[in-house]
Amino acid sequence: MTHVSLGTADFDPRQFRTAMGQFCTGVTVITTLNDADEPVGFACQSFAALSLDPPLVLFCPQKTSRSWKVIESAGRFCVNVLSNHQQQVSAVFGAPGEDKFRTVEWDPSPSGLPVIKRSLTWMDCTVDRVEDGGDHFVVIGRVQTLGEVLQDKPLLFYRGGYLSTEHPRVTPAQAELENFLTWTGGDTWL
Ligand SMILES: Cc1cc2nc3c(=O)[nH]c(=O)nc-3n(C[C@H](O)[C@H](O)[C@H](O)COP(=O)(O)O)c2cc1C
């Protein structure tokens, strides 16, 4: 591992990764088109819903990400939320590669951005703001178009490995849920 300075922190990078790995997330592939209209993208777990009004989302690319440089220059991106059928898609887009789209099927969104087939859903966004985040950037995007939602299970990433969910789910109390941006049970969503 390259040398990392954690300043005054009383833990090492491995302990930090282990702690972060306890937080289970979904997996997305964030895509765009380069100057030659070729599809580009990378696997990204640091995606989150940010705001309902206006509709904002965020993700955090490493400063060294090749895809981020293309997204920055294009000013727009598409978030593909992966289903549990797409572990291999996550593996391909989670590693450096010249032509990651060679092995996946995709369609253009209405604005032309790559939508990977069998994704649970997708959203077309424009880059609204970029903040510094240490060795990452925090990219805030404004959602412009929402894709269809497939009835399938999500791909999850936990402790450095993949898993999926089983139904039925246990949900928190209704009163708590109503404050969540990701709550879809009521008619308050958009
Ligand atoms: C499940 C998974 C989640 C990932 N999440 C992120 C992330 O949130 N941010 C990031 O910069 N890289 C993330 N990566 C790593 C990038 O996908 C990987 O470094 C990729 O090679 C970057 O490609 P690029 O240089 O073409 O952009 C993740 C990889 C996997 C497999």
TrEMBL record:
InterPro entries: Flavin_Rdtase-like_dom, HsaB, NADH-dep_flavin_reductase, Split_barrel_FMN-bd. One of its GO terms (molecular function) is monooxygenase activity. It holds the Pfam family Flavin_Reduct. Residues 20-164 form the Flavin reductase like domain. Keywords: Monooxygenase, Oxidoreductase. It comes from the Bacteria. Its EC number is 1.5.1.36. Belongs to the non-flavoprotein flavin reductase family. This is 3-hydroxy-9,10-secoandrosta-1,3,5(10)-triene-9, 17-dione monooxygenase reductase subunit. It comes from Williamsia deligens. The gene is hsaB.
